[in-house]
């Protein structure tokens, strides 16, 4: 339950910053100022975890959770959304699939998790030191990243971006499809809560904690390697069946994964359920950006992603993390997973009726074109 409180604090800070990060990145367009800020915060991660966060948590969980929430929420939970939305915007303007770029992030994650379990058993601080070193590499690479040169249409979009006003972002609240997307995201937000303490559940399937940590490192690494392959293939599926159907498919796989984790027993079957994440996540990430870019104003892509997806996920996580921790303590991991999976399934059914499909989108576009021709 203490762990749930810590994750809840992180989520609360992240949900406060995500709308701000989204609007700032939309105002900046393709400029890198926000990425520099995130990179510097990442560079501080090693000293923060080792010399500040861990000692304070030992003295006072509530104060430590609040302090950690501010740093981790601003750096990782909100920062990843800003970085992903930046890459998606570049991919949309220059004409490559976002999933192919995101694949390399998954490969990096897989490489890190492969060694994390070993290093954690030796000394957890090694992982935190390597995190700062990775941030240093990120900052060096960022120095060589040039602002993308864009064509005339891109120039128009880029020029319009700087004219964004708060009223443009607030106008999203009047759109029915924005709220339909929120309903969907409430359902899929369960995957964040599910993942937070899954390593604890998994490690208990083994004779010793050390063996469990080591095997979880292998499992997580395998999952993310598979996820990287999924990132390369998911655009073909999403383009084939459409953004809405892809979102619902990812939600159905997520429901199966969470419910299945509560029904199966033993390391092998539990691992199989966890590996479904490698199928679900690539479809979800590609589809959410496709949905946003085809249903809403392109200028607000970062705001929509960070508010409509990341922000809502963190709102839900901030409430659900302590409840999940309480459930793990009182009724066990398996029963808690069953409840979480059923809740996800209900929201997926509702979202299936609320989200507009690609046929509706095509009819709207056709009507707009006909109206312009008539005029």
From TrEMBL:
Protein name: MFS transporter
UniProt subcellular location: Cell inner membrane
Record keywords: Cell inner membrane, Cell membrane, Membrane, Sugar transport, Transmembrane, Transmembrane helix, Transport
Hydrolase recorded as keyword: no
Cross-referenced InterPro entries: LacY/RafB_perm_fam (IPR000576), LacY/RafB_perm_fam_CS (IPR018457), MFS_trans_sf (IPR036259)
Membrane disposition: Multi-pass membrane protein
Source organism: Orbus sasakiae
Signal sequence residues: none
Phylogenetic placement of the source organism: Bacteria, Pseudomonadati, Pseudomonadota, Gammaproteobacteria, Orbales
Residues annotated as transmembrane: 6-24, 36-56, 62-83, 104-122, 128-148, 169-194, 214-238, 245-263, 275-292, 304-324, 336-355
NCBIfam families (alphabetical): 2A0105 (TIGR00882), PRK09528.1 (NF007077)
